[in-house]
Amino acid sequence: MLEPSKIGPSTSADASGMDEFGYAQTLDRSIGKFASFAAGVSYISILTGVFQLFYFGFSMAGPAYAWSWPIVFVGQLMVALCFAELAGRYPVAGSVYNWAKRLSSGTFAWLAGWLLLLSSMMALGAVALALQLTLPQIWSGFQLVGDGTGQYDFAVNGVLLASIMIGVSTLINAFGVKLMTRINSIGVFVELAAAVLLILALGWHVVRGPEVLFDTAGFGDEHPLGFFGVFLIGAMASGYVMYGFDTASSLGEETKDPKRTAPKAILRAVTASFVLGGLILLGGLLAAPDLSDPKVGAADGGLQYVVLSVLGGPFGKAFLVCIVVAVIVCTLAVHAAAIRMMFAMARDNNLPFSRQLSKVDPVRKTPTVAAIVIGILAVIPLVVNVMQPAIFTILSSISIVLIYLSYLLVTVPMLRKRLLKKWPLADDDTEPGFCLGKWGMPVNILAVLWGGAMTLNLVWPRPEIYNSVPPFEWYLQWGGVLFVGAVVVIGVLLYRLKIRHQTGVLAEHAAPAADATVAGEPVTRDGDLEPAR
Questions:
Q1: How far apart are CA 444 and CA 423, in angstroms?
Q2: CATH number at residue 451
Q3: pLDDT at 516
Q4: Chain mean position to CA 108
Q5: Which of 23, 92, 90, 28 is nearest to 512 (CA)?
Q6: CA 20 to 30 Å from 107, out of 212, 249, 308, 387?
């Protein structure tokens, strides 16, 4: 059985413990077990993701696309298990960045942080855009731009609602982690309760049997790869949802007893999301009055339309209100994770204007400047793409590709350490809060294979994803590949030519005994971080 190690009292459970990683404790350590779990759950946010993407998966591959949900869960569970083992040893802000720093060179660690930081800012906008899929279906008055029938009404109104949501999230996150986690925990409780009630309600209104899951319904007949080809596209709807579980560890510096709390929160978050999200997906397919209705696979219909059709006005709209709550707390969680990544990189002097970005408010004990900067930067891609009707699909695709790549920059070097018999790391003599034991190697191999396959599927230049509306141009279809390639190249050049020459923990964030080190690890002559011997 894979279970947390049975350990005694840990210094990481007290008010500090950060000197172990070379940092001073500057953030507010106040997050409890449920709040840690809630952070992971709200980032994944089943009500946000499943309702936001049902229409896309269904329009691509029909009801059989639902099989992608358990497939994605198994793959992501392998990644989550690797992350749980790392969180049991290094529960530090900017988790993926700091883990990569321990496992590989400074270049790859910085690239992991760079990719996840950019993806988090883009994901923040993409999540906030989900309000457009739900609010106008609750009340037409939320369609502030036009009446929804104009060519750009949907996109422009979505950007407006998303920008307002990001502004609210910025204020809450800047005020302090206690307020953010309190709102987040309440929202997650509402989301989980609503999910259970929705599953029961849809189950009560089932009109067809599970055989519909084996019906390809003609999807893929015109695709060169048949149904498998369209299934790979539809599977992206599930791949877009089940990520962000590392947030529980990224908030580790603000969590009580993080080495034991964070690993459990990661695994519980991904498992709870799979079970509840899968049952909602199944219930929606079995209870929908008519799966041939075009609205079921339309952006302004989808699962929201199914719920309204099945449960009627008042009850259906009550559940849609719960979806809005889920979108709000998901936005808060994505924003919080992005802040911690920016803060973690900035205190290592690994970003431009690091001293300002790593500044912690002395009263609220939160990176206020980073919260504001993240909020502003997240709105920019929305405004730039305001006249693009397919804005959501494009933003989601690119941001998720970057996330999967950043995860690979952790699981691949971790596997390399295992193959070289160097895991656990030689300089780590602390008792971990979670250990995979003999299962570590096969789990890690599967995590790498899954991450590579999913990244390829996500970045594949399909017109259905990257150029679904006119004008149809080759550079738009290849936009994902070109953008991701440019981000990686620019990131590597930025680090190698400039950032690596300044890297080093800023004095105000360094532990007393961490002089001339970066996160407790020596700086090599070329500026790359190297595990302490």
A1: 12
A2: 1.20.1740.10
A3: 42
A4: 20
A5: 23
A6: 249
User: What is the total residue count of the chain?
Assistant: 533
- Three-state DSSP string of 309-361: HHHCHHHHHHHHHHHHHHHHHHHHHHHHHHHHHHHHHHHCCCCCCHHHHCCCC
CA–CA distances in Å: residue 279 to residues 210, 283, 496 = 12, 6, 47
Mean of pLDDT values over 40-50:
89
Please check whether residue 146 lies inside any domain of the structure. Answer: yes
DSSP notation for 51-79: HHHHHHHHHHHGGGGGGHHHHHHHHHHHH
Tell me the C-alpha distance between 76 and 438, whole Å.
19
19 Cα distance to chain centroid: 28
- Rama region for 220: left / alpha / beta (φ>0; ψ in -120 to 50; rest): left
Distance between CA atoms of 309 and 514, rounded to whole angstroms? 61
Number of domains in the chain: 1
Phi, psi of 108 (to 5 degrees): -70, -35
Domain presence at residue 74: yes
* Residue 177 contacts residue 31 (beta carbons within 8 Å): yes
Q: Which domain holds residue 340?
A: 34-211+224-509
* Relative orientation angle of helices 391-419 and 440-459, to the nearest 10 degrees: 150
State the Cα torsion 219-54-338-400 to the nearest 10°: 0
* Residue 518 pLDDT class (50, 70, 90 cuts): very low
CA distance linking residue 167 with residue 188, whole number of Å: 20
- The whole-number average pLDDT for the span 116-126 is 91
Average pLDDT, stretch 20-49?
90
Question: 287 or 531, which is more confident?
Answer: 287
Q: How far apart are CA 158 and CA 367, in angstroms?
A: 28
For 83, the token pair is: 């992350």
Beta-carbon count within 10 A of 525 CB: 5
Q: Is the dihedral of CA 233, 245, 381, 138 positive or negative?
A: positive
Report DSSP state, residue 459: H
Q: What digits encode the pLDDT tens for the residues 262-272?
A: 999 999 999 99
**Residues near 389 by Cβ (< 8 Å), separated by ≥ 6?**
151, 152, 154, 155, 469
Asked if the structure places residue 499 within a domain, the reply is yes
Range of lowest pLDDT (136-140, 275-279, 290-294): 136-140
Residue 313's pLDDT is what? Answer: 73
The answer to whether residue 243 is domain-embedded is: yes
Centroid of chain to Cα 425: 27
For the chain, the helix, strand and coil percentages under 3-state DSSP, each to the nearest 5:
70, 0, 30
The winner for highest mean pLDDT among 35-44, 148-157, 388-397 is 35-44
The backbone torsions φ and ψ at residue 521, rounded to the nearest 5 degrees and listed phi first, read -125, 140
